[in-house]
Amino acid sequence: MRMPVKSERDAFRIAYGSALLIVAAVVLGALVTPLLGIVAVIAGAAAALLWNVRAKDPDRLLPLREAAGQARPASDGRRRVLVVANETLRGEELRHELGARGPDLVLRVVAPVLPSRSHYVASDIDAELAEARARLEDTLAWARGAGLAATGRVSDAPPLTAIEDELRSFPADELLISTHPPQRSRWLESRLVERAREQLEIPVSHVVVDLARREAGVR
Asked: Which is nearest to 172 in space by CA: 69, 61, 62?
């Protein structure tokens, strides 16, 4: 929701619009029925409120965009991709997506942990951190074996915050988010991909990895 009055120009528009609405309501009330004039005022006020709620505020905080603006630009001409994934790091879909982009690529992989609710409440996420580190190291080894420059880290921050932290130092040309399918992804439930696309000017790609289907195929 945007602030309705931020300048004298906004105040003038509101005053002018209100005056027109009142005049229209008076005319309708005089020519037809007073009830219609009242209805016109209520409808106009409701429409203005709805517009204000749905309108995007150009001055609202965009932490991801602000963070991306703080990174020092790279000078080697190589494309840099920030990859955000955890349980799906070993997915064939993600590796195929990265491998198809060619060897002239610099990867930065961040793996936000996915603690269970009970572990999160108890601040006991050691097991989740260890599992995430194992997946990350495996992925970095695969990337280097494929000729890709790759570094990464595990993060105990929520995904959006982890992305923001990385963008401050890594001059990404693209953000790639890998998730489970919609019915099994907490990240998609929180609108992670949509929120990143709303805030960033760089491309934001989304790769779905269906680990359950792969495991079923193996069995």
From this structure: 69
Phi, psi dihedrals of residue 194, rounded to the nearest 5°:
-65, -40
Distance CA 146, CA 95 (A): 10
169: left (phi over 0), alpha (psi -120 to 50) or beta: alpha
CA dihedral of 63, 68, 69, 73, whole degrees rounded to 10? 170
Nearest to 205 by CA among 196, 213, 214: 196
State which residues of the chain have pLDDT below 50: 1-2, 5-7, 59, 116-122, 218-219
- pTM equals 0.69
As a CATH number, domain 63-218 is 3.40.50.620
Q: What is the pLDDT of residues 46-84, one digit of tens each?
A: 776 666 555 555 545 689 999 999 999 988 889 999 999
